[in-house]
C-alpha cells in the first residue's frame, strides 16, 4: 500500500495492476475499497492533490432514502441499497449521520395535491413509512416555518451525513487494505492494449488489465480517451448558503420542496457540523470549472429560504459554496461495462452519488466480472474508525480520557469549530494526510467556522507547514484511527 503525490510513478512490475480506478471522488474511492477485499493489485488515480476534491466535497450531504427516485431505474435501486449500506458502514467507520427525517412541505394547493402521489411513488420505491401531515401538525413539528405552509409528506429515514469523512473513510480503508493511491496524477492518455492498457500521466505510465472510469464531471472526456462517445456531461451548478450555528435551533427536520422539473429543488437542512444549509440552485452551464457562487444565485436562494423559514435570514452566513452535478440528459446513471475494452464507465452520477456510492461499488464489481475479472476469494478489509466531525457525537475537546492520554486533544486551536491541536496533528500523520489547508479542514473542521480562519488561520497553517512530528501516530486517537 502507498500514497504518492509527487515524483515518478512506479516502474516495472510495480506499475502493473489488475484494476485501476480513475477518479478518487466518493464513487471511485468506494469502488477501490470494494476491490480491496480481493487479492488483486489495485490503484486509485486522482488528478487533484487529495481525495474527494471534486463534486464529492460540495453537495447537500443528505443520505437519501430514494423515496422520490424514478421507479425501476438503476439509480432508484442503487440509492435504496446505498442508503442501507452507507447507514451501516457509517456506524462501523465513525462517519457522523443524523437520521432527522424529511418533511416535504407544500406551499400551494397544487403542491398539496401532489403529496399523495409522492407517497405512492415512495411506496413503489419500497418506502412504506411516509405519512401525510396537515398544517397544524406541521406547524407543531416545525414551529419556525413561514406562513402559508399547507401540509407536508413526512419521509422518515432521510438523514444528514458528513460527505468529507465518507470519501476519506473509503479511500483510507482501501489504502490500508493494499490499494495504491496516486494523487496529482491526471490520466491524460489511454493506450488500450492486451493484456495491459497503458495509462499516461505526467508522472509516468501505469499499466492495468481492467480500467474503471469514475471521473465524475469528466467521465465523458475520459470515455473519449478510450474511443467511446456515449453521453455528454453538462455541469448543473448548485449554489448553497451555510448559516451560522445559532440558526440550528430553527429547524428540526430536512425541509424538502415538492420536486420540480430541474431536480430536487431548494431545501433547508441542518448539517452534521451544527449549521443550517440553504440550497442548492440548479443551473445548467458549459464550464466544468464554474464552482463559483453568484450574487444572483445567492439572492434567489435567500428569497426562497425566507419564505420557508423567515427567521433564517436574520442569521449570519458562515460560508457559501457551489458544486456541479454531472447531468447527462438522462434521468438515470450512465454505468456501463465494455467487455471488449475491459473497461467500465461509471458516469452520470448526478445528485445522489454520495448516498449510492457503496451500492454503485458493488454493482461495478459485477460489471468487472463481466469484463473478465476473476477477483478470487474475498478477505476482510483493514478496519477503520474515522475521527468524529459531527456535533451530535463526542468531540475530542470534551473527551476527558483522550485528553488525559494526550493533552493536545484539550488544546483548542480553532475556537469557532472547537478543533484541537491533537486532531490537527492526527490528521497530519493519518494514512492519507491532507495535501493543503482545505484538505485539513475536511479532516478536522479547522478554519471552517464563523470566522473562516481569521483567528486560527496562522496557527493552523504553521502546524500544517511544520508537518508530522517525530514519534507521533494517529493511533493516539484510539483503536482503528486512520
Ligand atoms: C449541489 C449538489 C448537491 C448534491 N447533494 C447530494 C446529496 O444530498 N446526497 C447525495 O447522495 N448526493 C448529492 N450530490 C451528488 C454527489 O455529490 C455526487 O453524485 C458525487 O459526489 C459524485 O461523485 P464522483 O466520485 O462521481 O465525482 P467527483 O467527486 O467529481 O470525483 C471525480 C474525480 O475524478 C477526478 N478526475 C477526473 N478526470 C480525471 C483524470 N483524467 N485522471 C484522474 N482523475 C480524474 C476528478 O479530479 C475528481 O476528483 C449532490 C451534488 C451537488 C453538485
Protein described:
The chain is of the alpha/beta class and 482 residues long. It folds into three domains: 2-57 and 164-231 and 330-370, 3-Layer(bba) Sandwich (FAD/NAD(P)-binding domain); 96-160 and 234-327, D-Amino Acid Oxidase, Chain A, domain 2; 396-477, no CATH class. Helix content is 29%, strand content 22%. The protein contains twelve helices and 23 strands. The strands form five sheets. Strands 1, 2, 3, 10, 11, 12, 13, 20 and 21 form a nine-stranded mixed beta sheet that branches. Strands 14, 16, 17, 18 and 19 form a five-stranded antiparallel beta sheet that branches. Strands 7-8-6-15 form a four-stranded mixed beta sheet. Helix 1 (26-35) runs parallel beside helix 5 and helix 2 (74-93) crosses helix 8 (353-370). The protein is globular, with a radius of gyration of 22 Å. The mean pLDDT is 95. Bound molecules: flavin-adenine dinucleotide. The site of flavin-adenine dinucleotide has 40 residues, from helix 1, strand 19 and helix 8.
CATH topology assignment of the largest domain: FAD/NAD(P)-binding domain
Average pLDDT taken over every residue: 95
The total count of strands amounts to 23
Task: Supply the CATH architecture of the largest domain.
Answer: 3-Layer(bba) Sandwich
Radius of gyration using CA atoms only = 22 Å
Shape: globular
Number of helix segments? 12
Major sheet attributes: 9 strands, mixed
Q: Ligands bound here?
A: flavin-adenine dinucleotide
Q: Name the structural class.
A: alpha/beta
- The tally of structural domains comes to 3
The top-level CATH class of the largest domain is: Alpha Beta
Beta-sheet strand percentage? 15-25%
Amino acid at each position: 500500500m502507498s500514497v504518492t503525490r509527487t515524483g515518478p510513478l512506479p516502474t516495472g512490475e510495480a506499475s502493473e495492476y489488475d484494476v485501476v480506478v480513475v477518479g478518487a471522488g466518493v464513487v471511485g474511492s468506494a469502488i477501490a475499497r470494494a476491490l480491496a477485499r480481493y487479492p488483486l493489485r489495485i490503484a486509485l488515480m486522482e488528478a487533484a492533490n487529495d481525495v474527494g476534491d471534486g463534486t464529492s466535497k460540495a453537495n447537500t450531504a443528505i443520505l437519501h432514502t430514494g423515496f422520490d427516485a424514478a421507479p425501476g431505474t438503476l439509480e432508484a435501486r442503487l440509492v435504496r441499497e446505498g442508503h442501507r449500506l452507507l447507514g451501516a458502514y457509517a456506524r462501523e467507520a465513525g462517519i457522523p449521520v443524523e437520521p432527522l427525517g424529511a418533511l416535504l412541505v407544500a406551499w400551494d394547493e397544487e403542491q398539496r395535491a401532489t403529496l399523495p402521489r409522492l407517497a405512492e411513488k415512495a411506496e413503489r420505491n419500497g418506502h412504506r413509512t411516509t405519512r401525510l401531515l396537515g398544517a397544524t401538525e406541521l406547524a407543531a413539528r416545525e414551529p419556525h416555518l413561514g406562513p402559508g405552509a399547507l401540509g407536508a409528506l413526512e419521509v422518515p429515514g432521510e438523514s444528514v451525513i458528513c460527505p468529507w469523512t465518507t470519501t476519506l473513510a473509503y479511500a483510507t480503508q482501501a489504502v490500508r487494505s493494499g490499494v495504491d493511491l496516486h494523487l496529482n496524477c491526471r490520466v491524460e492518455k489511454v493506450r488500450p492494449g492486451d493484456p495491459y492498457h497503458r495509462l499516461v500521466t505526467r508522472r509516468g505510465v501505469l499499466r492495468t488489465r481492467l480500467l474503471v472510469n469514475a471521473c465524475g464531471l469528466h467521465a465523458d472526456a475520459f470515455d473519449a480517451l478510450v474511443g467511446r462517445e456515449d453521453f455528454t456531461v453538462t455541469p448543473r451548478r448548485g449554489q448553497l448558503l451555510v448559516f451560522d450555528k445559532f440558526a440550528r435551533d430553527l429547524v428540526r427536520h430536512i425541509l424538502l420542496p415538492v420536486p420540480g422539473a430541474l431536480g430536487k429543488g431548494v431545501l433547508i437542512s441542518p448539517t452534521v457540523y451544527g449549521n443550517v444549509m440553504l440550497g442548492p440552485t440548479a443551473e445548467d452551464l458549459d464550464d466544468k470549472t464554474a464552482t463559483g457562487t453568484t450574487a444572483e444565485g445567492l439572492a434567489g436562494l435567500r428569497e426562497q429560504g425566507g419564505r420557508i423559514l423567515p427567521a433564517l435570514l436574520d442569521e449570519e452566513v458562515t460560508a457559501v459554496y457551489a458544486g456541479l452535478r454531472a447531468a447527462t440528459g438522462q434521468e438515470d446513471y450512465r454505468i456501463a461495462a465494455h467487455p471488449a475494452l475491459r473497461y467500465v464507465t461509471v458516469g452520470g452520477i448526478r445528485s445522489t452519488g454520495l448516498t449510492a456510492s457503496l451500492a454503485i461499488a458493488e454493482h461495478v464489481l459485477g460489471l468487472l466480472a463481466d469484463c473478465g475479472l476473476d477477483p478470487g476469494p474475498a478477505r476482510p478489509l483493514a478496519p477503520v474508525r474515522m475521527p468524529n466531525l459531527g456535533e451530535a457525537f463526542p468531540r475530542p475537546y470534551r473527551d476527558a480520557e483522550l485528553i488525559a492520554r494526550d493533552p493536545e486533544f484539550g488544546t483548542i486551536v480553532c475556537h469557532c469549530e472547537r478543533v484541537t491541536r491533537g486532531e490537527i496533528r492526527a490528521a497530519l500523520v493519518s494514512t492519507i494526510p491532507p495535501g493543503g489547508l482545505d484538505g485539513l479542514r475536511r479532516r478536522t473542521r479547522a478554519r471552517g467556522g464563523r470566522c473562516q480562519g481569521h483567528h486560527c488561520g496562522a496557527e493552523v497553517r504553521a502546524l500544517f507547514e511544520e508537518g508530522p512530528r517525530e514519534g507521533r501516530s494517529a493511533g493516539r486517537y484510539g483503536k482503528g484511527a486512520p
